[in-house]
Design a protein that fits this description.
The protein is of the alpha+beta class and 429 residues long. The chain has helices spanning 9-20, 50-56, 87-92, 99-106, 117-124, 148-159, 169-176, 181-202, 211-224, 287-306, 313-330, 336-340, 420-427; strands at residues 26-31, 37-39, 42-43, 64-67, 78-82, 110-113, 130-133, 164-167, 229-230, 235-238, 259-264, 266-268, 271-272, 275-280, 380-383, 386-389, 394-397, 400-405, 408-411. Helix content is 34%, strand content 18%.
């Protein structure tokens, strides 16, 4: 890992909070993610299972966490199982956790090698009534591959068919949405690195550069500051490419007079930033570009005011839609007649602003949280309005990361340039 070791009090508290949600005589099992083959003898870069990391801080493949608060054997109330290293692994793969390092990282005293898992589990599982198993229940995930957690479910149900099997995901959804101070600080670090990459890009972009050259500047700054890398595939979309919401080809020339939409964020210690800025390639907005830009910025600033504890998702999005409708009429993209005759299930503004305004942010960029749960203190959410105008050959989206607080909210990206005149000033300095 490139990042500094996280204070294990985070993971100790996370496990403690998780245990309070378990039924009596419950055992919970969390697996690391699979390693996925990329080619004949290579794997894709390993990305840890978010729930396992949240509960243990262990950032290594082939790891298992077992939690059994009521276990009659005190050695097995919390157990971490790790892949045991050897001379071959040391030479070909490098560092793996020692038991002591895993204890220091996680705050778990009892650490065993992976080979001991089956025997230890079998020795205690009959003293549990409930077995909590984890699966990916993120609303945006569609299950097609039988990943490690799914395989474990089938295996355990075959061996122990009379236990009561429970879902760990609803408990994790409840816990992960509320960020602790340590998590906020890690997210702020990711935002700070993202800011520095953006400032670097502002001084680099000019007519004639390629989108992938801009992407290279960003990853240079990320790695320089010990970020793992991109939190998600970056969007470097010049001109009409910005009207493709998930454009990631990043292979076109940035031309004079165009805008370039930059959607990127650093991942630091598995916590993510998610930022969007739209800037003029030549350092100067045209009057029309600035008019649209300022409308998007207005919607962003007004939307942030609505992001408070207790706000209801659907109501919030409806209010943002009203803000956007007002601006689109002002820009003469839609008319009052369009609004009057709109289909309530697909309002007129959706022609130019077709996506949601916010999503939760954390260990996952689209973090695990309740879609129908009101905003709460400790949530971190994006705010990302946009206006997309294919017929005019450009789009504008702006996005900041917002922490819901007791007194309202705090913009984790409030220190990143966003006002149009400030963008122009930096680019032309």
């Amino acid at each position: 890992m490139k990042y500094k070791q996280i204070n294990n009090s985070l993971f100790i508290k996370n496990r403690s909070d998780f245990k309070t949600l378990l039924q009596p005589k419950s055992v919970a099992i969390f697996h690391s993610n699979d390693e996925f083959p990329r080619s004949g003898d290579q794997n894709f870069l390993f990305k840890q299972n978010s729930d396992l990391f949240y509960l243990s801080g262990i950032d290594q493949e082939q790891s298992i966490l077992l939690i059994f608060p009521d276990c009659p054997n005190p050695l097995y109330k919390e157990v971490l199982f790790l892949r045991q290293t050897n001379d071959h692994i040391k030479v070909w793969e490098g560092h793996k956790y020692t038991k002591k390092q895993a204890q220091e990282t996680s705050g778990i005293t009892n650490v065993y090698w992976l080979d001991d898992f089956d025997n230890i589990l079998h020795s205690i599982i009959h003293y549990a009534d409930h077995i909590f198993l984890n699966t990916n229940e993120n609303d945006r995930y569609a299950h097609t591959v039988p990943y490690r957690d799914i395989r474990l479910i089938n295996e355990l149900k075959s061996k122990y068919p009379l236990h009561k099997y429970e879902r760990a995901a609803p408990l994790m959804r409840q816990l992960r949405a509320i960020k602790s101070d340590i998590e906020v600080n890690l997210t702020q670090k990711a935002c700070d690195i993202t800011r520095d990459a953006f400032n670097r890009v502002l001084k680099f972009i000019k007519p004639g550069v390629m989108e992938y050259e801009v992407e290279a500047e960003i990853i240079h700054e990320f790695i320089k500051q010990a970020a793992t890398g991109h939190g998600y595939n970056p969007i470097i979309a010049s001109g009409n490419n910005a009207n493709i919401l998930h454009y990631t080809d990043n292979n076109q020339e940035c031309k004079d007079g165009e805008l370039i939409l930059l959607d990127f964020g650093a991942e630091y210690a598995n916590y993510n930033a998610d930022m969007t800025r739209t800037i003029p390639v030549n350092g100067k907005f045209t009057p029309r570009q600035k008019e649209v830009y300022n409308s998007v910025l207005y919607v962003l600033n007004e939307s942030k005011k609505l992001m408070v504890a207790g706000a209801i998702w659907n109501t919030y999005h409806e209010q943002v839609g009203e803000l956007m409708t007002e601006q689109l009429i002002k820009l003469k993209l839609i008319s009052s007649t369009d609004v009057k005759n709109q289909n309530p299930s697909y309002p007129a503004y959706k022609k130019y602003f077709m996506h949601g305004t916010s999503h939760h942010l954390g260990i996952d960029v689209h973090d695990f949280a309740g879609r129908y749960t009101p905003f709460a203190e400790g949530n971190i959410l994006t705010c990302e309005p946009g206006i997309y105008i294919p017929e005019e050959g450009f789009a504008v989206r702006l996005e900041n990361d917002i922490l819901i607080t007791k007194d309202g909210n705090y913009d984790l990206m409030g220190h990143i340039p966003i006002i149009g005149e400030e963008i122009e000033e930096i680019m032309n300095a």
